[in-house]
Amino acid sequence: MVLLTGTPVLLRSYRCHSSLGVRNSRVLSTNSSSIVLSIPKADVYRFGDGKNAQPLFRGLAWEIKEGENWAVIGSGGGGEKTALFNTLLGRYRIAPYPPPPGGMFPFLTLKGLDPYSEVSIVSFGHRQQAGGAFYDYSARYGAVHEEDRLTLRQSMFPETIPPLRMPYEEPNATVSSQPVTMSNEETAFFNDLVAQMGLGPFLDLPLVALSNGQTRRARILKAILKKPHLLLLDEPLTGLDVKTRPLLLDTLYGLHVKKAPRVIMALRAQDALPDWVDHVAYVSGSTVTTGERNAVMKQVETAIGGSTGKKSRNSKPSTSRIGDVLIDMKNIKVQYGDRKVLDQLSWQIRQGERWHLIGENGSGKTTLLSLITGDHPQSYTQTRYGDENHSRDTSSYLRLFSKPRSRLPTTLLRSAITIMSPELFDAFPRRANMSVWDVIGTGFDGDFVPKGKKSVGSGIGMKVGSSGDGRGGHEGSMEGQENWEEEEKWRVSRVWDVLEALGPDAWKRASTEIPPAASSFNLTKDFARMSFPSLPLPQQRMVLLMRALVSCAPLVLLDEVWSGMDEAMVTVAREYLRGDSPDGKIGIGSDQAVVVITHWEQEVPWNRDNDPEVFRQFKLSGGKGEELKR
Ligand SMILES: Nc1ncnc2c1ncn2[C@@H]1O[C@H](COP(=O)(O)OP(=O)(O)OP(=O)(O)O)[C@@H](O)[C@H]1O
User: Which residues form the signal peptide (predicted)?
Assistant: First the structure.
C-alpha cells in the first residue's frame, strides 16, 4: 500500500455547479487518506426502523488513523461487538452518514476503492448452517460423504479440485496441489502463513474433519488470502489452545503493521488484551467509548469490576457424592486411515465428579465426547473382549452406564447425557416459531424439536439415578401414564428454575450487583416467550446451555460453552455449575457428573484444590489420556 507523504496536496478537486457559480469543494490533505475509519458522530439504526426507534448505538464517534492498533471489546450479552462490526460493514443505517468525499473509510474511498469489497469480516459467533432443519454434525465422525469431501486446500484454491471423470475415462495427469495462478512471492506468503498458523498437516483433510481450533485458524487464513484492505475479526481467540493464541496474535500483528491487511479484533471484556493494542473501542449497551488504551481500560475496569471480582471467588468445598461409574473406557482407539486420534486411552467418569478435559487443538477432545454420546460410529466397535465376566487385561471396551453402545437406544442416551458444544450450537434448528421455553424443554428428552403439550417432552428417559430425588425418567413415552402429571409438573418447574438461575435476571444481577427488582419475574417470563432464532447469538448460547442443564441428567458435557458469552453470563453459568447460586437452591446436583472443555483455565467453575476427589483434570496428548494430579 503506497501512502502519500509530505505537505498537503489536492487529492480531488470537486467542482459543483450552482446558481451561485462554480465553487471548489473541500481540499483534502494527505492526512485524510491516512485515516482508516471516520465516523464523526452518528446514531446507528437497523434498516427499516421506525421514526421513534431506539438507536443500536447513540452518538457513535470513532476515528482510526493509519498505524494505530485497535481492538473492540464489549461487555454486553446482546451481540454488541458484532453489531458494531456490522455497522462498519454497512449492514445498519448510520445517521448522519460520514460525509463525502472520504465517507466512512477515507483510506479506501479517496483512492477510488470500494469499501464493501475491501473490508472483510471473520465472525465466529456466526452459524454456518441456516434454517429450521437439524444438521447432522456427527457426519464428520463417519465415512465422509461425497459432498463433504472438499479439502481445506481445495476450498481455498478451487483450481486444485480434480475434474469430474466418468468411470470409463482415463485418469488425467495428476492435478497440481499448488494453484497455478499463484506467483512465487504469493506461494511463499501462503506457505509462511500456513506454517505460522500450524495448518500444514491439515491442508489435504476434508474441511469437515478439522477440529474447532483448526477450522477457526483456517477461516482466518482464507480471509487473509482474499487480500482485503481491512480485516475485522470477531473473537478470533475463542476455541484456540494456549499455545496457539500468541502465535496467531503475532501473525496478525505482523500482517497489520504491513497493512496486508490492517486488522481490528473484537475481544470479550474478560480476555487479555495483546500488548500491541494501543487503542480500544469499548461497547457497552448502546454506548461506544473510543480512545487510547489506558484511558478506555480504566473505564472498562470500573464497569466490569463487580463481576470480575466475583470470578476470583473460591468455590466452596464440594458437597458432591462420588458414586457409580457412569462411563468406563479402556484402551480406546479412534483412527482415520493411518491418522491415530485416540490411542489406547482409558478413563472412568463417576457420579458426582467434575472433570476439566484439556488438550491442544486437534488432540481429540471432541472425538472423545462423541464416543461418550454415542454419536461416533466407532463407539459401537470399541468393545473387544470375549466374555463380559472374564475380560482380560488386554481387552478394550467402552461401557456407557454399564452397557456397550450397541445395547443403548440413542433416545435413552440423549436424555442420560446432555451436551452443549459448538457443533450443537451450529446444528440446532432455528425454526421461526420456536420460543426460548420450547428450546429449553427439548433438553429433557434430548430432542431437537418441541414435544408434549407443555413443550417439556413426552418423558423418554433413563433410570440411572441422576438428580438426587430419584428422578431419572422412563423408557418409552410417559405421556398419558399414571405418573406423567407429576413428572410434567417437575419439568415445568425446572424450566423456570434454570431460566431464573441463568436468564436475564441473573445476568443483570451479575453485571450490576444490584438486586433484581420485585417485578423481575416479568423479565424472565418475557424471555421465556421470546423467539429463539431472533435472540442475539450470546443469548442463544445461554439458552442452549439451559437446555443441557434443565433435566439434571446424570452426565453433562460442556464443550467450549463460554465462547461468545459475555462476562455476566459466564459468571452465572459458573455459579450454577458450582452449585453456589445466591439463593443456594439451584445448581448442579451432587450426584451429577460434569465434563467441561475449555482452553481458558479461568473459565473452569471449580478449584481443584478444594476437593481433589471431585474436581479433576484429564489431559489428551498424542492420542493418549492421563489424569493430571495436583
Ligand atoms: N474424518 C477424519 N479424517 C481424518 N482426521 C480427522 C477426521 N475427523 C477428525 N479428524 C482429526 O481428529 C483430530 C481430533 O479432532 P477433535 O475435533 O476431536 O479435536 P479437539 O481436541 O476437540 O480440538 P479443538 O480444541 O480444536 O476443538 C483432529 O486433528 C482432526 O483433524
Answer: none
